[in-house]
Amino acid sequence: MGMRYLHSSMIRCHGFLNSHNCVIDARWVLKITDYGMPALYQTQGLPFPTKSPKELLWTAPELLRDESLRKQGTQPGDVYSFAIMMQEVLVRGEPYCMLTLTPEVLQKCLRHHQPMTRNRKAL
Question: What domains are defined for the chain?
């Protein structure tokens, strides 16, 4: 419900969605925090914070490849972040915990991955 509300509001997307800014209140209702931060940085002329490789594990690959998109966030990027959070719940661990790669290596792989395309000559 929270993501649906954000996506239909003036904010349009969270941009920094991860399990660290989702909290549960006294009635066991999930609340999303830190929304609207990209717009705040932009309107106030504040420098965009540098994220550590570990903080970028919830970021969609297309946002890792495009700095301007990452700064403003996207709705599909929020959906990707939500999927990573669901993976955390299912495996009861941090993002990509089933892999032995460091956050730095994962970030490099996601950032420079070329999409798979079919070779036209083979057709």
Answer: 2-122 (1.10.510.10)
